[in-house]
Write a structure and sequence with these properties.
Chain B: InterPro entries: CbtB_put (IPR012667). The complex is a heterodimer of chains A (about 250) and B (about 70). With about 250 residues, chain A is mainly alpha-helical. Chain A has helices at about 1-45, 55-85, 95-120, 130-165, 165-185, 200-235. Classes of the chains: A mainly alpha (about 250), B mainly alpha (about 70).
């Protein structure tokens, strides 16, 4: 029965991720594509060789963007649902809906926002292709570190909560996480290599758009998955038996 | 669980799902989801499963805007 419950939550997580990816896609199209186009204009103006165009810009910015966003939504939604299954009832006295919201918040902070402070999103033309391997490795290393340190902070908080109370334990965990991440960021090498003359305003707008996309995605996921998970975990009495798995 | 003093809340404590039930789903679907993420975020960047540039070019804009190092 529990296994079916996990399956039901996983399916709903993927569905919530897909749903949340729709507003994120709209945000990406209307807010993010402008800075991308500006960066590509800079790239071609500076005759940076980009080779043959396999996929046209109009396809990249519509069908291509949609494919990437929706698949990303389903994938992270599924992973977040599995994290939720693990976190439920283990991180404190939170309801299913609150746990879903906290899972989404933690995913946004640990997998996106904290790593992006060190290795922010780069528009086309920013980033030397010769350093791609190194930048990719550092990017994923930073995500792994952030998730690891975040999980360690939660464990620390849970350990000291019975001694110091929930408030002090949360503050302690937050401080420990911030300090550890700060040390990691100081010692990891910088990933920036912005070409000379690249418009600073465009870089700022692109990065802000990138943060906005992820914020929309995770806010949407937290809300949608919280609603769906609550219905799976606490069905109305006598109407349905637990759970109602999807085929 | 965390409360050292009894909380006056009437909210029931949620029972955790047993790890034995979560683990198989987490392993199989976790890997599957990571494969999907790989194709959106990293395929035909440093490593290629499919030859050429088609996948990279198709998801190009999403890859940039989601924060993955693209090229």
């Amino acid at each position: 029965m529990n296994s079916a419950l996990v399956r039901a939550l996983l399916v709903r997580g993927m569905l919530a991720g897909l749903l949340a990816a729709v507003p994120a896609l709209l945000f990406a199209y209307f807010v993010g594509e402008g800075p991308v186009d500006a960066a590509i204009a800079f790239e071609s103006a500076n005759s940076h060789e980009h080779g043959e165009e396999l996929v046209s810009r109009s396809v990249q910015s519509t069908a291509g963007l949609a494919t990437g966003m929706l698949v990303f939504g389903v994938a992270v939604g599924g992973i977040a649902a599995l994290a939720f299954c693990f976190a439920l009832g283990r991180v404190g006295r939170f309801s299913a809906r609150a746990t879903a919201a906290l899972t989404a918040l933690a995913a946004f902070l640990l997998v996106y926002l904290v790593p992006t402070l060190k290795y922010p999103a780069n528009p086309p033309a920013v980033g030397d292709p010769d350093t791609l391997a190194r930048r990719t490795a550092l990017f994923f290393l930073m995500i792994a570190l952030s998730v690891l340190l975040g999980s360690a902070a939660v464990i620390l908080g849970r350990r000291v909560a019975p001694l110091w109370g929930n408030w002090n334990a949360s503050v302690t965990a937050g401080l420990a996480f911030t300090a550890a991440v700060a040390v990691a960021m100081v010692f990891l090498p910088s990933g920036d290599n912005i070409p000379k003359g690249f418009p600073a305003a465009d870089l700022w707008e692109f990065r802000l758009a990138s943060i906005g996309i992820q914020a929309v995605l995770w806010a949407g996921f937290g809300l949608a998955f919280g609603y769906l998970a609550e219905r799976v975990l606490a069905p109305r009495p006598l109407t349905h038996r637990v759970p109602t798995p999807v085929a | 669980m965390a409360q050292s003093t009894a909380a006056p809340t009437t909210q029931p404590v949620v029972t955790p799902l047993p790890l034995k039930a979560v683990a198989p789903w987490a392993v199989f679907f976790g890997v599957l989801m990571l494969v999907l993420l790989y194709f959106v975020g990293a395929e035909q960047g440093v490593t290629s499963v499919v030859s050429g540039e088609g996948v990279h070019e198709w998801v190009h804009d999403a890859r940039h805007l989601l924060g993955f190092p693209c090229h």
